[in-house]
Amino acid sequence: MFEGVAYDGTGKATSSMGVDAAHYRDDKDLGIAIGNFANEMASLYVTANARPPFVDEGVLEGLGPSRIPLTFGLLFLDYDLDGWLDLLLANGHLESEIHKVQQSQTYAQPSQLYWNCGPSCASHYVFVTETGDLSEPLVGRGIAYADIDEDGDLDVLITQNGRRPALLRNDQKTGHHWLRVKLEGRPPNTDAIGARLALTAGGVTRYREVMPSRGYLSQIELPVTFGLGPLDRVESLHIIWPDGSTQVLAPKAVDTSLVIEQAPGSPR
Amino acid sequence: MRAGLSWRWVLALWLAAAPLPLRADAPAELPPQWRGRLIAIPEADVSGAEPLMQQAIGEARREVAKLLRASGADLAVLAAAYGRLGALFVLTQVEAQADACLRNAQTLQPRDFRWPYYAGYVAMMAGRTDRALDYLQAAKAINPSYPTLYLRLGKVRLDRGELTKAREALEKIADEPGLLVAANYYLGQIDNLEHRYKDAVAQLQKALAADPGATGVHYPLAQAYRALGQDGLARKHLGQFEVRTPSARDPVLDQLQGAVKRSVPAFEKAIYAVRQGDYKTAATRFAEGLAVAPNNVAARVSYARVLYLIGKKDEAGKELTAALTADPNEVLANFLQGVLFQEKGRNREAAASYRRTLELDPKQAGAYFYLANLDLAAGRYAQAARGYGAALAVDKDIPPARLLELVARRRAGESETEIVKALSNLSVEHPDDLQLRYALARLLAAAKDPKARDPARALEIASQLALIQPMPPHLRALALAEASQGKFDQAVQIEQQAIVAAWMAPPAEVSAMQAELDAYNKHEVPRPAWPLGDPLLSPPPFDPVAPFRDYPTSVPY
After folding, report:
1. Which residues of chain B have a CB within 8 Å of the CB of A7?
2. Average pLDDT across chain B, whole number
3. Which of B161, B169, B106 is nearest to B139 (CA)?
4. What is the ipTM of this complex?
5. Interchain contact B93–A (C-beta under 8 A)
């Protein structure tokens, strides 16, 4: 409460379903996105100059003012590999016959995808209307991503309440370059959970973290995907391993997956 | 989830499912002279609304119908009639009908400020900011000098993230008596969003100086102080914070709402506060409304509910008693009184209240369920089984009741073979209900009656459960299934895993697991298959807050 993440900007409690956190502006400010109940906007708490308190900038960043869906899982992911972390919300109501008592609500609700257009736009997030099967109404709950077809972009799995999960293959055709990184840490944390990565390409540094438990009752894949946009060269990849040791690499190729083992005596 | 779910019982209070009338009236099927000019207002189902509200809607609708049928109706009179009907629909949250009524009023009196203004207010409250902005701009075109209009415009702009325009609107009324507090409250929020924390402090302090009782102002003020590094002041203001939106003078709105019924504006504000999770304000508003309309029993029950939710349990009990004195047949009051009794451990009185509830309304699934839970706990198994069955007959979507009915039937003496058969059918019908599979696995593994046992099937089910959710109860079921096949070493190993994983379990559960482990070590299958006290074979823990906040819902228990 003291740091500004307990309530909305006016001090009212929200429903708080799924949660994800990321440096979605690729700066030092951390954003915490939270899915809320029907008629409550998703929250996006952001630090100011890397310091608390967090302020809910959901509306300012383009997530509002739509307040219709009931969001469970939500994830930051770079669906178009342009380097910026987009935001995907899985929606679905609790009540199967909600439309009988609240006209604006339905049980199954379309997922919502927000494209991060970077600092050149007034708001970072822009609602995406053409999303293919992603726009089909679902009774969305958990949400996870992985590159299931190994084409470099991230595919999405959305679980539903009482229905089959929806596995949505990402067929984006942007031609953007990418680099996937799987970290192998020293025992006991061999998955390197908690490791932080900073990739610099074209003079811009992108920050990511190995943190698979995200969204709502869900776990994403372990490899970290960096979208590179039109850039076909990476200047450096800086890794801070969970034990605090660091490693700096200069990947030679893009559009590939790297497996990086923690160096035995990597410097702290 | 707390605030988000609070709308449920509000809706349930005002709305409930019921058959629609068979014949459309004039507002629904417009007379020829009005077709193409006005929007038809379909019948809305308001049969679950409190009686006064149903009556008011019926009267307002009949008035519109009469005017529509009359030749040469006065447009202003017809517009006012639509306005009244729209205002009532607002209170029942029938948004489409409310909006259509107000649009008709606007069509009939396009130069009347009230209609677009009120429609804009309604849309703003519903979070439909596009529509709200359109209506409020239309109102501004008619009368740009109404000061409160700029408060509404500023709020809508703020909700849309249009901070510059929001500031522009709010600054027009920042010193206006009756609006100063609300305007500066929103201006302070804008400053916070723009990271202009010193300005935020100035605006919010100005609001507090004008109304020290505007406790909602303390939260954004605390945020501003926190950002400025003045943590002591931030903590002080957080300590003074209570959810309460500053009030604003709005004679146009009051006039329109007052035309509906004197008590209704207070109840409307109360309901709105409930939807926001602001139970303190709701309690104040319900009390104001009840001062005008003391015989409104449904509102008194709602008052009792919010009193309970703000921790005033004794007062809540008194209001329920008052409601029941005024109307002993008030269903919800009887039910909630039962919940209060049960919370105090007065189970006999609780059961009597639930029974009374069911006498009055045999469709109260929650009362059946709660009563059955009491019967089960008291060892009245046959009664409990009938109760769960009755709850399911009313609402088939109460997953715990499905299994608990069978648990009660088994404890009442029904054969294990019959129970296995029933459970197998239920498991097929509800493949996602893991509790059913858990119960079935245990029974197939350790039934007393050898004819009911099927260790291979038990192992298959328990293995699936442990794979889907490797939590301690599922591991216990798997250990039991292994033991039922004579594989005691595996049973010991799995039970040990379960004990390690159950580090947060209550001591009684850990003791039960230890006893099972001892049995496996002695190469014995622990019995009974369904031990008393197994949390997965028992009712969910009693939580009185849930029914006070959410009942009735399809799955409140």
Report:
1. 219
2. 88
3. B106
4. 0.82
5. yes
